[in-house]
Amino acid sequence: MKIRDVVSSIEEMAPLTYQESYDNSGLLVGTYNSDVSGVLICLDVVESVVEEAIKKGVNLIIAHHPIIFKGLKRFNGSNYVERTVILAIQNNIAIYAAHTNLDSVKGGVSDRICDLIGLKNRRILSPVREDLFKLVTYVPNKFAQKVRDALFQAGAGSIGNYDSCSYSVEGTGSFRGGENTDPFVGEKGKLHLEPEVRLEIIFPKHLKGRISEALLKNHPYEEIAFDIYQLENENKQVGLGMIGELSVPEEPLLFLKRIKEIFGSACVKHTEISKKEIKTVAVCGGSGSFLLRKAINQKADIYVSGDFKYHEFFDAEGRIIIADIGHYESEQFTRDVFYEIVTKKFPNFAVYISEINSNPINYL
């Protein structure tokens, strides 16, 4: 099995196109066509994790946080990033990261937080825009269903919790083939009118290549008339953070104590208890202060995330409770997400979760 096979299982769920512009997800060290002896899963790639991979005899590390964020101008071991990369290269160990792309999908980081807290009726807190495209094409009536089914099979036609969504209207297409044509219907050199279906269907941008391929393979015409438009609509299946509801409202202090225990936080920093009960909960793994306004606007009672700065706690203004459980603490279960993805696709393969606690923060 190749590295490409393993990482493709992750990218099927969390395409690299969903990562933020500042991010550096993907294969950072190694080559896609290298054979894989085993996988070690971690949150952060540090020297001790690479050493663990060496001891376990695996040559692919899958991490949430990219070890390389900024460009490396030299490799002389002057810091932990350079030393980690050097050690990995010396031992032929590949490093792959899925960061904000895994943050941005259902089933990803924030969704796992919702699982642990026990939230229902979940939705993306900050859906992305300009991720959806619309394909419009014109197909002879008898072939419309074949083309439609092929596009569905390629992943088009999903809107929220509905799939196989499309729109069609019947009309008449006209064309005249030139001397070097071999028209599917009509005769070259003669104007032809053909009963056709105008077919419209949407798809996310990461599937553009697959959708185009399905259209070209299944449309009967020699020259296919089609348009692809980028939409401004929100894609409510993709984006950062999540919001959901508790089955039974909880008293705020009891809720705070419960999440402290669930995530093993040494402390939970929080704003004043401004709510009588907790019902609607917003979450975001990692550094989530940038979504506070979204959580307030969507009437969350509490926002669970990490890395809030001192002055950012003032922004709650009594309208929401901020609960900072810590960056590492909020994302530690991402390792389980990776493990489930890989072992589901490759059940008989050597996959390990790192035993290294890479949290750089300690508490007295």
Structural commentary:
The protein starts with a helix and ends in an 11-residue tail after the last strand. The radius of gyration is 25 Å and the shape is globular. It has helices spanning about 5-15, 45-55, 80-90, 100-105, 110-115, 145-155, 210-220, 250-265, 290-295, 325-330, 335-345, and strands spanning about 25-30, 40, 60-65, 95, 120-130, 130-140, 165-175, 190-205, 225-230, 235-250, 270, 280-285, 300-305, 320-325, 350-355. α9 links the parallel β12 (about 280-285) and β13. The chain has about 375 residues and is an alpha/beta fold. The strands form three sheets. A six-stranded mixed β-sheet has the order 5-10-12-13-14-11. Strands 1-4-3-2-15 form a five-stranded mixed β-sheet, sandwiched between helices. The protein has a four-stranded antiparallel β-sheet with strand order 7-8-6-9, with helices on one face. It folds into three domains: about 5-100 and about 335-355, NIF3 (NGG1p interacting factor 3)-like (Udp-n-acetylmuramoylalanyl-d-glutamate--2,6- Diaminopimelate Ligase, Chain: A, domain 1), CATH 3.40.1390.30; about 110-125 and about 240-325, 3-Layer(aba) Sandwich (Udp-n-acetylmuramoylalanyl-d-glutamate--2,6- Diaminopimelate Ligase, Chain: A, domain 1); about 130-230, Alpha-Beta Plaits, CATH 3.30.70. α1 packs across α11. The chain has eleven helices and 15 strands. Helix content is about 30%, strand content about 30%. Belongs to the GTP cyclohydrolase I type 2/NIF3 family. Keywords: Metal-binding.
